[in-house]
Structure formats: structure tokens, C-alpha cells
């Protein structure tokens, strides 16, 4: 059973998502919060698999709530998915850096929403290749603040190659085809890279690839 926590200051939106999720046999909404502070508290109490968190809320916004959840070792298995009204808005990259596993636009259709929740519950980044490319075009391609990414020198050549391809928006199957390996091996390379770079998921791995200089915007 996939356990979901809803964190949004709009009661009607929460009730709509709850109705969709509770209708599924493998998903259960275990709690609701109207602000980020309450959401973090409930995450610690309920230990959900997924926390659907609005990016703009009173008391504590979604980015800071995500940061607190991601920083708590007891919540390592809680995957935060950011909810936004605006798609690729200015806060998305900050949310990914804070530890979000991905994001959803609030007007997403049910046939896309439910599979997305299941993807996030598996621990996969909720960033389709097309979304990753948009992130690159809209945000990561812009100059980023200088930062130190530790663990880069521990990556093997093949792990570096897999990370670079993931940062370009390629799926595991596409990475496997490009590297002439199996999709399972491609996923293994990415998982090992995430461990070495201390990235929670593929979404943060993409951000780190750009911030470390492993991949440069505009690079072929």
C-alpha cells in the first residue's frame, strides 16, 4: 500500500486529490496538512511513502518543508513531490536542490496523476525526460551559484557517462542504448553515482551534474 500525505493550504484541492487517491486499491491518504510546518510534523508522525507538498503555503513554504524532510534521517524513505500551479516556475530548481523527488502541476489529468504517484513511490525521480529537458532549458542552462559537489572524483568513467546522459534528459533505456549496455546496468551506474554524490534521487543527480561542471549547458 502506498501511503500519501497531502500538504496544501487549499481544502478543495486536497479533497480532490484525496478522492482520486483513495479510490485506488493500492494507495491510501494517511493525512492532510494546511501548511508546511504541519506537513513536516505529520511526515515525522505518519512516515508516508509520498508527501505531495504545495510549493507556496503559509507559515512554512513547500521548499523549506521539503528541505526539513530531506534533512531528517528518520524521513529518508519519504519522497517529496512538489505541487505547483505554474509548471516550470522559478521555484522548481530550488525545490529540487532542497530534496524534492520531482513535481506535478496541479491541473494534471487523473490518468497522468495516479501513475506519477506510483513512480515516485518506487523511489524514481518524477521527472520524465521531456520535463528534464525543459528544466535544462529554463533553469539549469542559466549560470548557477558556485558550489562544491563532493564525491565527483569517486565516479568511474562509465558512471560519469551515465550521469551526463541522464542530465541530458535520457531515460534508462536510452542511456543503455547509447552506452551499449542493459537498462539494468544503466540503472546500476546511476544508483551508484547517486550514492557517491549523496543525491537522494535522479532529480538531484541532474542538478549536481550541472553544478559540478560534469555537464555544461549547450554542450553537445
From TrEMBL:
PANTHER family noted in UniProt: TRANSCRIPTIONAL REGULATORY PROTEIN NARL-RELATED (PTHR43214:SF24), TWO-COMPONENT RESPONSE REGULATOR (PTHR43214)
InterPro entries named in the record: CheY-like_superfamily (IPR011006), NreC/VraR/RcsB-like_REC (IPR058245), Sig_transdc_resp-reg_C-effctor (IPR016032), Sig_transdc_resp-reg_receiver (IPR001789), Tscrpt_reg_LuxR_C (IPR000792), WalR-like (IPR039420)
Annotated HTH luxR-type domain residues: 148-213
Keyword terms, alphabetized: DNA-binding, Phosphoprotein, Transcription, Transcription regulation
Organism from which the protein derives: Streptodolium elevatio
Protein name: Response regulator transcription factor
Keyword Transcription set for record: yes
Domain spans labelled Response regulatory: 3-121
Residues where 4-aspartylphosphate is found: 54
One Pfam family from the record: GerE
Amino acid at each position: 500500500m502506498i501511503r500519501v500525505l497531502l500538504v496544501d493550504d487549499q481544502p478543495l484541492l486536497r479533497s480532490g486529490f484525496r478522492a482520486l487517491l483513495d479510490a485506488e486499491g493500492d494507495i491510501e491518504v494517511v493525512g492532510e496538512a494546511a501548511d508546511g510546518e504541519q506537513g513536516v510534523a505529520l511526515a515525522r508522525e505518519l512516515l508516508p511513502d509520498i508527501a505531495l507538498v504545495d510549493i507556496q503555503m503559509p507559515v512554512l513554504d513547500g521548499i523549506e518543508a521539503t528541505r526539513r524532510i530531506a534533512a531528517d534521517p528518520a524521513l529518508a524513505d519519504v519522497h517529496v513531490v512538489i505541487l505547483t500551479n505554474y509548471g516550470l516556475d522559478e521555484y522548481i530548481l530550488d525545490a529540487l536542490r532542497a530534496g524534492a523527488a520531482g513535481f506535478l502541476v496541479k491541473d494534471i489529468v487523473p490518468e497522468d496523476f495516479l501513475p506519477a504517484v506510483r513512480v515516485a513511490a518506487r523511489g524514481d525521480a518524477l521527472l520524465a525526460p521531456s520535463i528534464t529537458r525543459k528544466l535544462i532549458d529554463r533553469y539549469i542552462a542559466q549560470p548557477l551559484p558556485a558550489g562544491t559537489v563532493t564525491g565527483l572524483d569517486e565516479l568511474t568513467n562509465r558512471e560519469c557517462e551515465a550521469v551526463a546522459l541522464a542530465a541530458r534528459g535520457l531515460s534508462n533505456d536510452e542511456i543503455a542504448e547509447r552506452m551499449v549496455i542493459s537498462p539494468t546496468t544503466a540503472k546500476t551506474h546511476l544508483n551508484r553515482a547517486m550514492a557517491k554524490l549523496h543525491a537522494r534521487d535522479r532529480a538531484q543527480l541532474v542538478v549536481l551534474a550541472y553544478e559540478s561542471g560534469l555537464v555544461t549547458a549547450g554542450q553537445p
